[in-house]
């Protein structure tokens, strides 16, 4: 009887325990580390130096695309410009609206359309000025912060809190450059604190998801490489099915035999060596005295 009760009560206990303790391990949380290690084996990893990683970061591939790190810096700068433009535009347009209403309370306009048109022109112009004023500043701040952090992380080959601290301190000091040494010091300290907070949040999120920044970059390169390989395969498949008139004319004139460049290079090297041997033999012979 007790065994039957336990048998029927076990699923209910499992459901209740899953509701109370949702982070309990199960078979779905098991990861095949062997297959992941095989994929990680394709990555250069520590076999590259810091300079080589920076060179790859600032290089362009065969399709004219920048690296994922540079692309992330571009995206951060654009997002910073967008947020700064929206913030500056909305704040400035609100101030312009309030000033227009206060200054033109006793102004006699010809019609309500003229008043609305002047108000719209004033608000639009002020919105553009405020958007540009805040947009480029926040874009420069965001780009410099993410750029410095990414460069240091790529050079070291790993991510830690130090990159965020250095990036925040340097960016804050640069932002207050026009205020002198004291302003740069205060800006650097404020940037250092905010950079540390941002770094702790980023690392905490990565730790909670069970991944690292190196793995994120690896998967980005892996997905891009798979996409490029799929494009190459599709182009090769398409070109194989289509007839090329230039190639057909070449085959009709010279035949379908393929020219092996390795053999051509090897033959040219052998010919060069033979010529060098003959020249050395001629140079080593003693000169015969001229007959009178």
What's the arrangement of secondary structure elements?
Blueprint (H helix, E strand, L loop, with lengths): L1 H19 L12 H8 L9 H8 L10 H36 L8 H45 L4 H15 L4 H30 L3 H29 L3 H10 L6 H24 L8
Helix pairs in contact: 3-5, 4-5, 5-6, 6-7
Which features would summarize this protein structure in a list?
mainly alpha; transmembrane; 292 residues; 10 helices; 77% helix; disordered N terminus
> Which H/E pattern describes the elements?
HHHHHHHHHH
Which percent range fits the helix content? over 70%
- Tally of helical segments: 10
Strand content: under 5%
The low-confidence parts are 1-23, 33-41
Structural class: mainly alpha
Count of DSSP strands: 0
Over the alpha carbons, how many angstroms does the gyration radius reach?
A: 35 Å
Q: What is the end-to-end distance?
A: 133 Å
Main beta sheet strand tally, sense and closure: none
